[in-house]
TrEMBL record:
<dbReference type="GO" id="GO:0000287">
    <property type="term" value="F:magnesium ion binding"/>
</dbReference>
<keyword id="KW-0460">Magnesium</keyword>
<feature type="domain" description="Mandelate racemase/muconate lactonizing enzyme C-terminal">
    <location>
        <begin position="88"/>
        <end position="183"/>
    </location>
</feature>
<feature type="binding site">
    <location>
        <position position="190"/>
    </location>
    <ligand>
        <name>Mg(2+)</name>
    </ligand>
</feature>
<dbReference type="InterPro" id="IPR013342">
    <property type="entry name" value="Mandelate_racemase_C"/>
</dbReference>
<dbReference type="Pfam" id="PF18374">
    <property type="entry name" value="Enolase_like_N"/>
</dbReference>
<dbReference type="InterPro" id="IPR029065">
    <property type="entry name" value="Enolase_C-like"/>
</dbReference>
<feature type="active site" description="Proton donor">
    <location>
        <position position="107"/>
    </location>
</feature>
<comment type="similarity">
    <text>Belongs to the mandelate racemase/muconate lactonizing enzyme family. MenC type 1 subfamily.</text>
</comment>
<feature type="binding site">
    <location>
        <position position="164"/>
    </location>
    <ligand>
        <name>Mg(2+)</name>
    </ligand>
</feature>
<dbReference type="Pfam" id="PF13378">
    <property type="entry name" value="MR_MLE_C"/>
</dbReference>
<dbReference type="GO" id="GO:0043748">
    <property type="term" value="F:O-succinylbenzoate synthase activity"/>
</dbReference>
<protein>
    <recommendedName>
        <fullName>o-succinylbenzoate synthase</fullName>
        <ecNumber>4.2.1.113</ecNumber>
    </recommendedName>
</protein>
<feature type="active site" description="Proton acceptor">
    <location>
        <position position="214"/>
    </location>
</feature>
<dbReference type="InterPro" id="IPR010196">
    <property type="entry name" value="OSB_synthase_MenC1"/>
</dbReference>
<dbReference type="GO" id="GO:0009063">
    <property type="term" value="P:amino acid catabolic process"/>
</dbReference>
<dbReference type="InterPro" id="IPR036849">
    <property type="entry name" value="Enolase-like_C_sf"/>
</dbReference>
Length: 326
C-alpha cells in the first residue's frame, strides 16, 4: 500500500553531500531521505531526470521503507572499487579508500578524454592491483561500435573482466559483443537495463553477457529481483552514487539474489566526502555489510540542502507521488 504524501513529507530530509572527486560531472550529490516503518530509505534520482523516470525511484524508496524485505541469503556483499575519470597519478590515492577490493571498475570514454588517457589510467590500475586483480570498464554508452572495438582492443592486454555499456543501443551492444568475442571480453548492459522501456529487452536480444542491476531505477528490491530472475543472466548489483541508505537498499537486493558471481558496484560510499550516518557502508576487506542505516540528526543538519533545493526536492516528491497514485 502506498503511504500518503503527508506520511512521506513528515520525515523528508534533503541533503547535499560533497564528493571527494568529480563523478559523472557532479561534485555534490543531492538526496532526499525518508524514514518508514522499516527505517531510513532514499529517494535520489539525478536532478536532470524527468518525473516519470524519478517516480520509479520513489516506488523503490517506498518499497524499502514501507514494503516487505525478501529473505536475505548473505550478510556481506563483495564490492568493486569505482574509479572516476582522473589522471593516473591519482589512482593509488583513490583506490586506497576501497579497503581490500580486488576488483576495480574504471570509468572510460569521458567526452573530454582520449583513448590514450583511458589506456594510461587502466595501466595505472593494473599496476596498483597486480596480476590477480580484476579490471572492468564502464563507458556509459559513449562509444560508437568502431570506437568501442578500437578501445577494447587497445585495453584487452590489461585483462578485462568485462566492459559495461560500451555503446548506447541494444543493437550496438549486440554488434560489439560479437566483434570482441574473439578477445574473450564479456559485455555488460547498464543503461540498456535501467533506462529502457523494457529492462529485459537486452537480455532477450542476447546483446549482453551480464546485467548491471540498480534497485532505485528499477522500482525497488522486489521489482529488481524479478527482473534478475526473468533475465536469466549473471548480474552486478550497483549503486547510483547513493548515500549509505541507498547502498543499504542495494546490499539488501544483492543479499536476496540466489546467485552472485561478480563483485557488486556498491562500494561508492568511498567516493563521498560526507554521508548521512555515523556508520557509513564503506568497504572493509573488499565487502560491505548487509544492514539498515541509522541516520545521524547532526549530519542531516550539517549537510542540509539550501531552502531552495529542499523546496525543489519536496515538490518533486509530491509530483512523483501523484504519478504513483495514478
Ligand atoms: O558500479 C559502480 O562501481 C558504481 C556505480 C556507478 O558507476 C554509477 C553511479 C552513478 C551513476 C551511474 C553509474 C554507472 O554505473 O554508470
Ligand atoms: Mg554503468
Amino acid at each position: 500500500m502506498l503511504p500518503s504524501v503527508d506520511d512521506l513529507l513528515e520525515s523528508a530530509r534533503v541533503v547535499a553531500l560533497p564528493l571527494r572527486t568529480r563523478f559523472r560531472g557532479i561534485t555534490v550529490r543531492e538526496a532526499l531521505l525518508l524514514t518508514g516503518p522499516h527505517g531510513a530509505t532514499e529517494f535520489s534520482p539525478f536532478v536532470e531526470y524527468d518525473d516519470s523516470e524519478a517516480a520509479t525511484w520513489l516506488a523503490a524508496a517506498i518499497d524499502f521503507g514501507w514494503g516487505t524485505t525478501p529473505p536475505l541469503l548473505r550478510d556481506r556483499i563483495p564490492v568493486n572499487a569505482t574509479l572516476p575519470v582522473v589522471t593516473p597519478d591519482r589512482v593509488p590515492e583513490i583506490l586506497d579508500r576501497f579497503a581490500g577490493c580486488r576488483t576495480v571498475k574504471v570509468k572510460v570514454a569521458d567526452p573530454g578524454a582520449t583513448l590514450a588517457d583511458d589506456v594510461a589510467r587502466v595501466a595505472a590500475v593494473r599496476a596498483y592491483l597486480g596480476p590477480e586483480g580484476r579490471i572492468r570498464l564502464d563507458a556509459n554508452g559513449a562509444w560508437t561500435v568502431d570506437e568501442a572495438e578500437r578501445a577494447i582492443h587497445a585495453m584487452a592486454e590489461f585483462d578485462l573482466e568485462y566492459v559495461e555499456q560500451p555503446c548506447a543501443t541494444v543493437a550496438e551492444l549486440a554488434e560489439i559483443r560479437s566483434r570482441v568475442h574473439y578477445m574473450d571480453v564479456p559485455i555488460a548492459a547498464d543503461e540498456s537495463v535501467r533506462k529502457a522501456a523494457d529492462p529485459l529487452a537486452v537480455a532477450r536480444a542476447g546483446a549482453a553477457d551480464l546485467l548491471v542491476i540498480k534497485a532505485q531505477p528499477l522500482g525497488g528490491i522486489s521489482a529488481a529481483a524479478r527482473i534478475v530472475a526473468e533475465a536469466g543472466l549473471p548480474v552486478v548489483v550497483s549503486s547510483a552514487l547513493d548515500t549509505s541508505v541507498g547502498l543499504s537498499m542495494g546490499a539488501h537486493l544483492a543479499a536476496a539474489l540466489p546467485e552472485l558471481q561478480f563483485d557488486c558496484g556498491l562500494g561508492t560510499a568511498a567516493l563521498l566526502a560526507e554521508d548521512v550516518t555515523d556508520a557509513p557502508l564503506l568497504p572493509h576487506d573488499g565487502a560491505i555489510e548487509v544492514r539498515r542505516i541509522d541516520l545521524s540528526a547532526q549530519l542531516l543538519d550539517r549537510h542540509a540542502a539550501s531552502a531552495d533545493r529542499r523546496d525543489w526536492w519536496l515538490k518533486r516528491l509530491r509530483r512523483c507521488h501523484s504519478l504513483l497514485e495514478g
